UniProtKB/TrEMBL annotation:
It comes from Sorangium cellulosum So0157-2. This is DUF6431 domain-containing protein. The lineage of its organism: Bacteria, Pseudomonadati, Myxococcota, Polyangia, Polyangiales. Residues 37-101 form the DUF6431 domain.
């Protein structure tokens, strides 16, 4: 379920209950026994970035649902589609940034104003924005988008950004003729998360 629908009506515990525990593979709701994946409360999660490609930057808070596995005691967080583990920016916004830097040759400060809303910018304007370098390094290791592979340890960052962006463009549903690469990377990244 995408963020928009999730924020309109928070999905129920039952609706989001994982079919299996990702840690021990126990069935979440066995046919013949008590529940295994049990609701374990809510956790607020910040999500940064525009909701639409080229749109105004936003900062929203979503309620992620937690589940606890009664077999192995693992706690699992279920979030809306389009978010990546441990990243505050939505996957689509990260795809946008990589395409703007890697394909359009845009500078980091310019791209920052496109995805970062003014409240965040206001606090951190004087600091260098390190997030894109971290994303590029994670992509190099194959740890940014789970569906994409890794890149060479020696490849320059600009090249890793470019190749990652091209992979995201390739995943995008076909847009209108003349769509900019960053728009396609935005949509491809939402699907790659
Ligand atoms: Zn488990």
């Amino acid at each position: 379920m995408d963020i928009k629908r999730w924020m309109t009506v928070l999905p129920t515990v039952e609706h989001l209950r994982p079919a299996r525990c990702p840690c021990c593979d126990a069935a979440g709701r066995p046919v013949d026994g008590p529940l295994v994946m049990r609701g374990h409360g809510l956790r607020e999660r910040q999500v940064y970035g525009p909701r639409a490609a080229g749109g105004a930057p936003q900062q929203v808070t979503v309620q992620a649902r937690r589940y606890r596995c009664s077999a192995c005691r693992a706690v699992l967080l279920v979030v809306p589609r389009g978010l990546l583990p441990r990243r505050r920016y939505a996957a689509a916004a990260i795809g946008w940034v990589l395409a703007r830097i890697g394909l359009d040759g845009a500078t980091t400060p310019a791209v920052r104003t496109e995805v970062c809303c003014s409240t965040i910018l206001g606090v951190a304007a004087a600091e260098r924005w390190l997030a894109p370098s971290r994303w590029i390094e994670a992509s190099r290791r194959g740890q940014l988008f789970p569906r994409l592979g890794r890149h060479g340890a020696q490849s320059p960052r600009a090249q890793v950004a470019e190749r990652t962006a091209m992979q995201l463009v390739a995943l995008s549903p076909r847009g209108r003729a003349g769509d900019r690469a960053a728009h396609l990377a935005f949509r491809g990244a939402a699907l790659a998360a």
